[in-house]
Every structure is written in C-alpha cells, then in structure tokens.
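Q: what sequence does this backbone want?
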C-alpha cells in the first residue's frame, strides 16, 4: 500500500496494477448487489445477445477504481469523494485488466486530487474510463 500525502502528490504521477476477473468475483458481486440480470448470470442469454460469454458487471470493474485510489494512488490517506465512470466496452470472465490512474489536478486548498483512470483489457482495448476525486490527508 502506498502512503502519499497531499504534499507529495503532483500532476503526472501515475500508478497501475493488473487483475483477472474470475467466476468467484462474479458470484460475490451478485451476492452483494442482488443483481441477477441474465446478461451477467446466463451464458446462453448472453450469447443470444451477441456476446461470447457472460458480461461482467460494469460496477465490478469500476470497483477496481476504489482499489486504485485506496491502495495505490494516493493509497492509505485517501477518501473517495466521487467516481465518474464510463463503460466503453464489455468485460468478460477471464479478462485481465490493467487498472491505471494518473493525477491530473492537486488542490491543496480543498485537500482533493483528481485522477484520470482507466481499465484496459489484455487486448489493449480501453473498456472503462473513470474520473476520480479523492480527499487526501495532509
């Protein structure tokens, strides 16, 4: 876990990590959220909609933005204020995602940073974009 404070952060700083989406993650997200939509639960239904398999919950992918901010950038001293998310392409079970964030603004007056974030799959396709506002301890 990183420990950046407000004074250490500056525009251009970036961090990234990779994660592979598993069946277990899907089951846990379903249990937690209660979202039983067939696009996420039924491979035949998903195939009928033109997808090669069950579509991963968009919010499951977006949850990795919480990991990005709370563990990597800035890490320990972070409290999320907002996350704006855009789902560009579907994610599928077994996809390996690179979660990347770059600080674009540091506002010491409000104790807040802005991070431009993205999820990119193993084929180099950007599947999710995000804009994170996070409070950072001084």
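A:
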């Amino acid at each position: 876990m990183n420990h950046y404070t407000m004074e250490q952060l500056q525009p251009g700083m970036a961090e990234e990590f990779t994660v592979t989406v598993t069946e277990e993650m899907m089951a846990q997200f379903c249990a937690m959220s209660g979202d039983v939509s067939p696009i996420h639960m039924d491979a035949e239904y998903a195939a009928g909609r033109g997808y090669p398999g069950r579509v991963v919950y968009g919010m499951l992918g977006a949850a990795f933005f919480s990991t990005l901010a709370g563990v990597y950038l800035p890490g320990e001293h972070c409290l999320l204020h907002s996350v704006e998310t855009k789902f560009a392409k579907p994610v599928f079970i077994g996809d390996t995602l690179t979660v990347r964030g770059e600080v674009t603004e540091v506002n010491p007056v409000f104790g807040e940073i802005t991070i431009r974030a993205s999820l990119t799959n193993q084929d180099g396709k950007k599947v999710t974009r995000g804009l994170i506002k996070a409070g950072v301890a001084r």
